[in-house]
């Protein structure tokens, strides 16, 4: 809204930056985060994406875990043993990055008394949880709250009164759109993707802070699409404000979601062809890239994968690119 005078800032943040700096010991939360998206990674890859390159430590840790350093996707229980051997190095690195990130938050006023509101796409609110942990450790008089497109029940698992609100899943949210959006989370994230390479750290230079980006060729098509989406959104928002149509646009959200629902369930073939080459990163720190259109992950059961393919644009994209022996039964 044009008359909103509250201070706001585009926060340089990512799970790699925020969640990693929250690690103070290797507990269950840290293990879950560090092993995220490990399906295509060795122990060396897992350590490298949090800034630790130490061949001797990697070899000792793998030996303690009972697997070879070349093993891809080590078993979770064995990886936990290996990461415990690396605990001192991981905690020291996280502490170093946390000091820089804390000064960055202070520079944008995050330490002021009152409520700091995080606005994001959402789902599990892990960045908000990590920020709250940092606030508590820093003794800042700040309450961290979150407003999101959507949140999952897991976000509230530890605290039912966790101060987060997800439009799609709270109150009068559009229930009819939830199922389609749940099936097509990757596409929803593409709509909200930032037109820039991912952030893996922050550099402090003479009191100012610059993001350290992970530049990957796999990101180029996604950034191309995100830039055009942002251009259209910015131009539309300016027109809405100029013609005082903000309230009318807000009230038409239900119609917009019905259109999105229809697009996800029965897309036009040119859109499928356009989206098929796009790739996005799995896990944090751009550990692996996969297609937006026919992703097969361990988070989906075979039944849910088939359901997604048969009821959304995943189907056309998958059928168009799958080998014949897979395409026929689908």
Question: Which structural class do you get from the secondary structure elements?
Answer: alpha/beta
Total beta strands: 7
Radius of gyration from the alpha-carbon trace, in angstroms? 21 Å
Q: Work out the strand percent.
A: 5-15%
- Overall geometry comes to globular
Q: Biggest sheet, strands in spatial order?
A: 1-2-3
Q: SSE order in H/E notation?
A: HHHHHHEHEEHHEEHHHHEEHHH
Tell me roughly what share of residues is in helical segments. Answer: 40-55%
Largest sheet: 3 strands, parallel
Please mark out the parts with pLDDT under 50 across 5 or more consecutive residues, or reply none: 295-300
User: How far apart, in Å, are the first and last alpha carbons?
Assistant: 47 Å
Number of helices: 16
Let me know the average pLDDT: 81
Structural summary, described in words:
This protein is of the alpha/beta class. It is 49% helix and 14% strand. The chain has 16 helices and seven strands. The protein has a three-stranded parallel beta sheet with strand order 1-2-3, covered by helices on one side. Helix 1 (15-21) packs across helix 6 (87-107) and helix 14 packs across helix 15 (314-321). The chain starts with 14 loop residues before the first helix and ends with a helix. 27% of the residues are buried.
What tags apply to this protein structure?
two-stranded antiparallel sheet, globular, 330 residues, alpha/beta
What's the arrangement of secondary structure elements?
Layout: H1 15-21, H2 28-34, H3 43-48, H4 55-65, H5 76-85, H6 87-107, E1 114-123, H7 126-138, E2 142-151, E3 164-166, H8 175-183, H9 185-191, E4 198-205, E5 208-214, H10 220-242, H11 246-251, H12 253-265, H13 269-275, E6 279-282, E7 288-291, H14 302-311, H15 314-321, H16 324-327
Parallel strand pairs: 1-2, 2-3
Antiparallel strand pairs: 4-5, 6-7
